Amino acid sequence: MSTVVRPTAVRPWVVLLGLLALAVNLRASLAGYPPLLESVRAELDASAGVAGLVQAGAVLMMGAGSFAGPVVGARFGRERALGGAVGLVALGGLLRGVPELGPSTALWSLIGGSLVVGAGIGLAGVLLSGVVKEHLAERAGLATGGYVVSMMVGATVASAVAVPLSVALGGWSFSLAVWAVPAVFAVALWTPIARRVPVPERTGHRTLLPWRDPFTRLSACYQTGTSVMFYGWLTWLAPYYEGQGWSPTQAGLLLAVWSVTQIPAALLAPAFAERRRRWRFWAMLTLACGVAGTVGAAVLPMPPLLGPWIWVVLMGVGVGAGFPLGLTVIAWRTPDGAASSATTGFALGVGYTAAGLTPLLMGVLLDVTGAYPAAIAVLLAAGALQAFAIVKIGDRPVTG
């Protein structure tokens, strides 16, 4: 299969800057919700399962957006479609800020807006990988780590300021709606860049999801494991420690530290793996950190002297490195942007679908058992699946 090269007048560093601006918005809208989760439950009289359903619905729509990403990118051009995807994130954020006219209206606007946000994030994640392969292939690991770090910066800020914004603006819905602003700004910055890249010719079969490929299936297993661990803790880490006696503000700060720890892991692990193609070593090492932190939080949530910070740091290293390492290995082993988007679309689609059910499942288990051990066991099972995929993928190309 020959590769179709698209001429472009856009310099790689300009593309990278645009990607970083867009990526800031791809976790902030979701990360701003967990610190407010207990406030939402109290105000709307919602169960843990219903509160988890909000995040679950968003992540499930991320899965749907991921499956659709390759087709949308082929139809409109990955660069143009990427701007539209982040526009959906802005629209969903505004929907979540609908004035609260009663518990029922507030709940439905929260759920509806979260679904739109999730669809935009899912589309954008797939399109980002294709744009990196198309414009920044020679530094795929560094570029992938860079835009994932940008996502994490957005998530960190959103986690840290969610509760103060809620107090300052007069409600949790307005705190969530704030994140539409940087999304609009990023789309305005990206649009001139996208317009300078020609729309590719439609190629039909290359937009199909390559689910028959062994490497693609293993990538889906890997992304399922890392996505379940990430979105499980993203939703329930703050409520878990509120149950240990921490205030909502303290728990939000704990979630922010979890996000901050991910930043160096996301930037350095793919770069180290890229230097000598030692992907399996770095993937397994960082996963071990995440599993150790999860077990520690479950068995001894408040250790003497160090408190929960040590567990949060270890968990942050695991999920922080996991996602970009999964995208990096796809970039290495696919021939062009279209193939990279197709493989990423399937892997993230499966991963996000499984991860989307995780907050809901954990909430239901919490309602049924009245405690967290069963819910945390779901995350450990995901870690085992991720370890299986790492061993099978290894450091050499997978054929089949």
UniProtKB/TrEMBL annotation:
It comes from the Bacteria. Residues 13-400 form the Major facilitator superfamily (MFS) profile domain. It comes from Pseudonocardia abyssalis. This is MFS transporter. The chain crosses the membrane at residues 47-69, 81-99, 105-128, 140-163, 169-194, 215-238, 250-269, 281-303, 309-332, 344-365, 371-391. InterPro entries: MFS, MFS_Cyanate_Porter, MFS_dom. Keywords: Membrane, Transmembrane, Transmembrane helix.
